[in-house]
Amino acid sequence: MDLGLTETQELLKNAAREFLEHECTEAHVRAMEEDERGYSPAMWRQMAEQGWQGLLIPPEHGGAGLGFTDLVVLIEEMGRALLPGPFIPTVLGGAVPILEAGSDAQRRDHLPRIASGESIFTLALTEPSARFDEPGVQTRAEVAGTQVTLTGTKLFIADAQVADYLVVAGRSARGVTLAIVPARQPGVRITPLSTIARDKQCEVVLDGATGELLGVEGGGWPVLERVIDRYTVAECAYLVGLAQMDFEITVDYAKERVQFGRPIGSFQAIQHKCAEMVTDVDGCRFITYKAAWALATGQPEAETRLAVHMAKAWTSEASRRVVAHGQQIHGGIGYTRDYKIQLFFRRQKRGEVAFGDADYHRELVARRIGV
User: Fold this and answer.
1) Looking at the predicted structure, is the pLDDT value of residue 280 above 80?
2) Which residues pair with 362 in a beta bridge?
3) Residue among 180, 38, 64, 179 at smallest CA distance from 116
4) Helix (H) or strand (E) holding 166
C-alpha cells in the first residue's frame, strides 16, 4: 500500500489549491452562507471547465476517467478552502450511483451533463429517523415498468434546493429501490433547513413524485452500500482539508498573538495543543487515504468496509478535537462571527455527523471485528 501522491495527483492538488485560494476566498464562503443558492454558478462552470465534476466519469461520457483516490485529493483541497456548493452531492450522490447501476441510456443521458456542469444531483437517502442503514429507508416506491412513483419525506438532503435531479431511495414490495427523480415537478416540495454550519440542507417531501428506475427493483441497497462507502470517505477527505487549514491558521495566530510580553506559542500549554492538533490532522489523513486506497484498488469487501468505518470514526472525532483546540487557542476572538476560525468550527460539525458520527461507525467497527 503506497499512500504517496502520484505526479498526476500532485499536479491536481497544486492546481486546485491555486484556483481555490484565488476564487474561494473567506469573503466568498461568507457570501454563500447568505446566498439562498449556496453556491456560485460562475465558479461551478469554472470547476467544470477544469474537469472536476467529471473526474470519475469515463472519457466516453465527457469525463477525465481518473480514480477515486484522485477525487479524494481534490476534495481535501476543497475542505481546506471550505468550498460551499453541490460538488460532493453531485459527484458522489449522482455520478457514482449512475456509474454503479445506471443503464447505458442513463449514462449517456446524465453523465455528460454532470461532467459539463449542466446538471446538479443530490442523494435523497435519510429520513426523519436519521438512519443510514437499510431499515431506515421507508419512503414508499411503486414501480411500473421503468417508472417509479415515490411518497415520503427525506431529511438533511444536501443542496436539494438547487438540484436538477434527486437520486431517491425508496422501498417497494421487493425492497430498497433507487430512482432518478427530476427535482422540479409538482410532487416534490423542498424546504431549506437552518443548520449550525449554515450549509444548505433540506427537507424533501415526495407526494406522488415520479422518476426513472435506477438499477433493478429491490436491488437498490447493495448499490447504496457502495455509494455510501465512497460518500463517507469523501466527507472524511473534506474534514482532513478543513482540519489542516484550521491547524495552520491557529499556529500562525499562536506565533503572532503576544501576551505577557511574548508570543503565546512560546507557552508549553499552547505548544502541546498545537502538537495534538497536527497529530490528529496527520492521523486523519493517513486513515482516510488508506480507506480511499482500499476502495480504489478493489480490496476485499470486508477489509474495505472496515477501513471506511475506521476512517469516519477517527476523522469525525479527531477533527472535532482539532477545531476545539483552534477555538481555545484563539480565545474569545475565536467565537466572534468577524473572525474566520469559527467558519471551520461550524463546518466541522456538519461533516462530523454526515453519514454517521464517531459512535455510529465505532459500533460498525466493533461488529466487523466480531465483538
Assistant:
1) yes
2) none
3) 64
4) strand 165-172
Looking up cell 415498468 gives 145
- Worst-scoring range by mean pLDDT, 79-93, 155-169, 331-345? 331-345
- DSSP strand pairing (262-263 vs 258-259): antiparallel
Distance CA 369, CA 347 (A): 31
Q: Tell me, what amino acid is at 355?
A: F
Name the pairing type of β-strands 262-263 and 147-158: unpaired
pLDDT for residue 55: 98
Q: Which residues contact 249 (CB under 8 A, 6 or more apart)?
A: 326, 340, 341, 344
What is the Cα–Cα distance from 343 to 327, expressed in whole angstroms?
A: 11
143: its cell numbers: 414501480
Q: Which three cell numbers stand for residue 338?
A: 468577524
How confident is the model over 203-247, as pLDDT tens digits?
999 999 999 999 999 999 999 999 999 999 999 999 999 999 999
Residue 54 grid cell: 467529471
Give the separation between CA 234 and CA 236, rounded to whole angstroms.
5
pLDDT at 217: 98
Question: Can you give the residue ranges of every domain in the chain?
Answer: 7-115, 121-218, 222-368
Q: How far is CA 83 from the centre of its chain?
A: 11
Residue 108: all three cell numbers together: 449517456
Q: Phi/psi of residue 38, each to 5°?
A: 80, 5
Architecture of domain 222-368: Up-down Bundle (1.20)
Nine-digit cell at 44? 461551478
Which fold, 121-218?
A: Butyryl-CoA Dehydrogenase, subunit A; domain 2 (2.40.110)
Q: Collapse the DSSP code of 308 into the 3-class scheme (helix H, G, I; strand E, B; otherwise coil) and give the result.
A: helix
Distance of CA 270 to the CA centre of its chain: 31
C-alpha grid cell, residue 125: 437517502
pLDDT at 2: 74
User: Is 121-218 the same fold as 7-115?
Assistant: no
Measured over all CA atoms, what is the biggest interatomic distance in the chain, rounded to whole angstroms? Answer: 76
Taking the model in full, what pTM does it have? 0.97
What burial class does residue 224 get, using C-beta atoms within 10 Å of its C-beta: 0-12 exposed, 13-18 middle, 19+ buried? buried
Across residues 81-93, what is the average pLDDT? 98
Rounded to whole angstroms, the Cα distance separating 98 from 111 reads 8
Pairing status of strand 258-259 against strand 121-124: unpaired
